[in-house]
Input
Amino acid sequence: MKYPKMLIRQRRITIVKISRPAHVINDELQWFGNSLDLFNLRDKDRSCFRVFIELLKATKAQVPVSSDELAARLNLSRGTVVHHLNRLIESGIVMVVKNKYILRGSNLQELVDDIEADSLNTLRELKRIAKDIDEGMR
Output
Protein backbone atom coordinates (compact mmCIF):
# COMPACT_ATOMS: atom_id res chain seq x y z
CA MET A 1 0.00 0.00 0.00
CA LYS A 2 1.39 3.41 -0.93
CA TYR A 3 0.89 6.21 1.58
CA PRO A 4 0.96 9.91 0.72
CA LYS A 5 4.29 11.73 0.94
CA MET A 6 4.73 13.62 4.16
CA LEU A 7 4.35 17.37 4.33
CA ILE A 8 6.70 18.60 7.03
CA ARG A 9 7.96 22.12 7.39
CA GLN A 10 10.95 21.26 9.55
CA ARG A 11 12.81 17.98 9.64
CA ARG A 12 16.12 17.02 11.17
CA ILE A 13 18.22 14.86 8.87
CA THR A 14 21.31 13.44 10.52
CA ILE A 15 23.54 10.84 8.94
CA VAL A 16 26.47 9.33 10.83
CA LYS A 17 29.12 7.28 9.03
CA ILE A 18 29.62 4.13 11.08
CA SER A 19 31.44 0.93 10.14
CA ARG A 20 28.96 -1.72 9.07
CA PRO A 21 28.72 -4.75 11.38
CA ALA A 22 28.92 -8.40 10.45
CA HIS A 23 25.83 -9.81 8.73
CA VAL A 24 23.69 -10.33 11.82
CA ILE A 25 20.23 -8.88 11.18
CA ASN A 26 19.76 -7.27 14.62
CA ASP A 27 23.23 -5.72 14.47
CA GLU A 28 22.54 -4.44 10.95
CA LEU A 29 19.20 -2.95 12.02
CA GLN A 30 20.88 -1.28 15.00
CA TRP A 31 23.60 0.02 12.64
CA PHE A 32 20.93 1.32 10.24
CA GLY A 33 19.20 3.27 13.00
CA ASN A 34 22.47 4.52 14.48
CA SER A 35 23.56 5.70 11.04
CA LEU A 36 20.42 7.85 10.93
CA ASP A 37 21.07 9.01 14.52
CA LEU A 38 17.76 7.51 15.66
CA PHE A 39 18.95 5.83 18.84
CA ASN A 40 20.96 7.44 21.60
CA LEU A 41 23.13 6.15 24.41
CA ARG A 42 20.67 7.29 27.11
CA ASP A 43 18.14 4.73 25.85
CA LYS A 44 19.45 1.92 28.06
CA ASP A 45 16.55 -0.48 27.41
CA ARG A 46 16.76 0.16 23.64
CA SER A 47 13.11 1.15 23.61
CA CYS A 48 13.46 3.37 20.52
CA PHE A 49 15.11 0.50 18.65
CA ARG A 50 12.27 -1.78 19.72
CA VAL A 51 9.67 0.75 18.54
CA PHE A 52 11.54 1.03 15.23
CA ILE A 53 11.52 -2.78 14.80
CA GLU A 54 7.77 -2.96 15.49
CA LEU A 55 7.17 -0.17 12.97
CA LEU A 56 9.29 -2.05 10.43
CA LYS A 57 7.15 -5.16 10.99
CA ALA A 58 3.97 -3.08 10.63
CA THR A 59 5.33 -1.57 7.42
CA LYS A 60 6.14 -4.98 5.98
CA ALA A 61 2.57 -6.08 6.80
CA GLN A 62 1.21 -2.74 5.50
CA VAL A 63 -0.74 -2.26 8.73
CA PRO A 64 -0.16 1.01 10.64
CA VAL A 65 -0.14 0.64 14.44
CA SER A 66 -1.31 2.89 17.25
CA SER A 67 0.84 4.06 20.13
CA ASP A 68 -1.30 1.92 22.45
CA GLU A 69 -0.66 -1.16 20.32
CA LEU A 70 3.07 -0.48 20.31
CA ALA A 71 3.09 0.06 24.08
CA ALA A 72 1.27 -3.23 24.67
CA ARG A 73 3.46 -5.23 22.28
CA LEU A 74 6.67 -3.84 23.76
CA ASN A 75 5.61 -3.68 27.40
CA LEU A 76 6.46 0.04 27.48
CA SER A 77 4.47 2.98 28.77
CA ARG A 78 2.46 4.87 26.17
CA GLY A 79 4.44 7.99 27.14
CA THR A 80 7.73 6.30 26.27
CA VAL A 81 6.33 5.08 22.95
CA VAL A 82 4.93 8.52 22.08
CA HIS A 83 8.27 10.14 22.96
CA HIS A 84 10.11 7.83 20.55
CA LEU A 85 7.41 8.16 17.88
CA ASN A 86 7.73 11.95 18.01
CA ARG A 87 11.49 11.68 17.56
CA LEU A 88 11.05 9.27 14.63
CA ILE A 89 8.43 11.57 13.07
CA GLU A 90 10.79 14.55 13.48
CA SER A 91 13.51 12.59 11.73
CA GLY A 92 11.15 12.07 8.81
CA ILE A 93 11.06 8.29 8.84
CA VAL A 94 7.66 7.75 10.45
CA MET A 95 4.28 8.90 9.15
CA VAL A 96 0.95 9.26 10.89
CA VAL A 97 -1.93 7.64 9.00
CA LYS A 98 -5.36 8.03 10.64
CA ASN A 99 -3.84 8.31 14.14
CA LYS A 100 -1.65 5.27 13.55
CA TYR A 101 2.04 5.04 12.73
CA ILE A 102 4.05 3.43 9.98
CA LEU A 103 7.49 3.85 8.47
CA ARG A 104 7.72 6.17 5.52
CA GLY A 105 8.16 4.06 2.41
CA SER A 106 7.21 0.44 1.94
CA ASN A 107 10.67 -0.88 2.83
CA LEU A 108 14.04 0.32 4.15
CA GLN A 109 15.50 0.93 0.70
CA GLU A 110 12.56 3.17 -0.24
CA LEU A 111 12.94 4.93 3.10
CA VAL A 112 16.60 5.68 2.32
CA ASP A 113 15.63 6.84 -1.19
CA ASP A 114 13.14 9.28 0.38
CA ILE A 115 15.75 10.53 2.87
CA GLU A 116 18.21 10.97 0.01
CA ALA A 117 15.64 13.02 -1.95
CA ASP A 118 14.92 15.14 1.15
CA SER A 119 18.65 15.72 1.66
CA LEU A 120 19.20 16.72 -1.95
CA ASN A 121 16.20 19.08 -1.86
CA THR A 122 17.52 20.66 1.34
CA LEU A 123 20.99 21.08 -0.15
CA ARG A 124 19.53 22.63 -3.32
CA GLU A 125 17.58 25.10 -1.20
CA LEU A 126 20.69 25.93 0.85
CA LYS A 127 22.65 26.44 -2.35
CA ARG A 128 19.98 28.77 -3.74
CA ILE A 129 19.85 30.79 -0.52
CA ALA A 130 23.66 30.92 -0.35
CA LYS A 131 23.72 32.32 -3.89
CA ASP A 132 21.12 34.96 -2.94
CA ILE A 133 23.15 35.93 0.13
CA ASP A 134 26.40 36.07 -1.86
CA GLU A 135 24.78 38.29 -4.48
CA GLY A 136 23.29 40.52 -1.79
CA MET A 137 26.71 41.05 -0.20
CA ARG A 138 28.32 42.44 -3.35
Notes: The chain has a mean pLDDT of 86. Helices lie at 25-35, 47-61, 67-74, 78-90, 108-136. The domain at 25-105 is CATH 1.10.10.10 (Arc Repressor Mutant, subunit A).
